[in-house]
Design brief:
mainly beta, 52% strand, Immunoglobulin-like, 280 residues, 2 domains
């Protein structure tokens, strides 16, 4: 956002030449982040929403010297300049600001607040009589994400005789993880699957059954949609996401029982995993 380029917040005249100008000061706490736009590195100030800061730049119109270049607003103190003139000239300025990510974002509302003030500088004094104050309105921050419902994968009933020894497996069951209502405008979407039970064979992505299971000698193996071993605990970029269209998408997988012990005992055979999405 940018304020209007204003040249007449204050109009001054003097009988002798003196330095008169415009200076800005922040009203927010400084963060450790910076934001670069072109050749200018702007300081970033904290907002009321974790992970969201506001970068602020200013330029001044001063006392006969006209417009000055854009500068980063100082983390503390005053930012501006003055010009030496005895004539009747206006003094003003312009401010630009943008919200920037400073860390993991928690959805919330950036509260309405005054965040910058400008004051006239004259006679080596920052004059507080006629300040110009800049405020932001309440701004809602939403975390862009897809909706990912829980998935139940019935692997069905299988005979113990289907598995012929350690490393053999049953027929696989195909399933999909849905990514619903994905917004447009994200740079990339990644996903990762992690086991909630011990990993019995990391190279084959085989995990143990959970504590409520009664079957023994077998685990569950996770495969991608093409039947290849899907690596656990490893982020994968989802190539099916389009920043231009977003929408409802799916990621295909397969799962099957995998013999891990010398003997397989029949019974209930369940396990669980977590599915984590990362958005940029």
């Amino acid at each position: 956002m940018s304020t209007p380029a204003t040249t007449d917040w204050w109009t001054c005249s003097a009988n002798v030449q003196e330095f008169i100008g415009t200076y800005f000061a922040p009203l927010l706490a400084a963060s450790a982040a910076t934001f670069t736009d072109g050749s200018v590195v702007y300081n970033v100030f904290d907002t009321s929403v974790p992970g969201v800061g506001i970068a602020i730049g200013v330029r001044v119109y001063i006392n006969g010297c006209g417009w000055q270049p854009w500068n980063a607003l100082s983390l503390s103190g005053w930012t501006g300049s003055a010009c030496n003139s005895a004539l009747l000239y206006g003094n003003g300025g312009q401010l630009q600001a943008r919200l920037v990510k400073t860390g993991p974002i928690t959805a919330g509302t950036v509260g309405a607040t005054a965040f910058v003030k400008a004051q006239l500088y004259a006679n080596a004094t920052y004059n507080a009589t006629w300040p110009v104050t800049f405020s932001i309105t309440a701004t809602q921050v939403k975390v862009q994400s897809c909706v990912t419902p829980d998935v139940q994968v019935p692997l069905g009933q299988h005979k113990v005789s289907e598995m012929k020894g350690v490393g053999t497996f049953t027929s696989s069951t195909s399933f999909k993880i849905a990514l619903n209502s994905c917004p447009t405008g994200m740079t990339s979407v990644s996903y990762q699957i992690d086991a909630l039970t011990p990993i019995l064979n990391s190279s084959a992505s085989v995990v143990a059954l959970d504590s409520r299971s009664s079957a023994a000698g077998t685990g569950m193996q996770l495969l991608d949609g093409s039947g290849n071993v899907f690596p656990l605990g490893t982020p994968k970029v989802f190539s099916g996401y389009s920043s231009a269209t977003g929408g409802n998408l799916t990621i295909p997988f397969q799962a099957r029982y995998y013999q891990t012990g010398s003997t397989v005992t029949g019974g209930i055979a369940n396990t669980a995993m977590t599915f984590t999405m990362t958005y940029q």
